[in-house]
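Backbone Fold Data
Goal — fold tokens
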Amino acid sequence: MKNKTLFSQSQSNEPSNHDAKQIKLDRLTELFASIISTIGEDLHREGLVKTPRRAAKAFQYLMSGYDLNIEQVVNNALFKCDNNEMVIVKDIELFSLCEHHLLPFIGKCHIGYLPDGKVIGLSKMARIVDMYARRLQIQESLSNQIAQSLMNVTGASGVGVVIEAMHSCMIARGVRKQNATVKTCAMIGSFKNDPAIRKEFLTSLHLPGAYSFSPPSEDL
């Protein structure tokens, strides 16, 4: 009985998920207040009084992908299906933060896969994109993570992912190129090994069949 009591007490002393998020939110609020103060602004100015808290909540949402895993996102939304033709979902909006400068990149993701006995709920593909996009990222890794997760979950014979995005780190600073668009792709299984399948996918996106893989980005 004594051991049970001690176990119950230790459980009750552990912070709940809500408490943990609140602790994180309070810490982020302090950090944003420090940043604003450090750049020389007055935290007591009317327009800035609530800014640290607002910024903390926004950042917590933008990084909410760290609180999820693929099992939670898919939630068993896999269904038997005898269709083995290509499934494509285009123009999935995405918003992420570049891990090099903490500046946003915004764009869209296109996903295709060849089912092998089962399909995934269509909305789950968008949710997978969101889960990985709501983390600190580089676009090249984001493409690969989405493709590999979908491959692992569905057991598809092949997966292709293409992301097109504009990066604030290129627009608002550095080279300041306002119209530069970055395109990356990840091809797995038959999408990588079979040129005809890859061409079918890329043609449906109005991209050339000889689309090349993007090189790793460099931290400038």
Notes: The chain has two domains: 2-62, 71-204. The first strand starts at residue 78 and ends at 80.
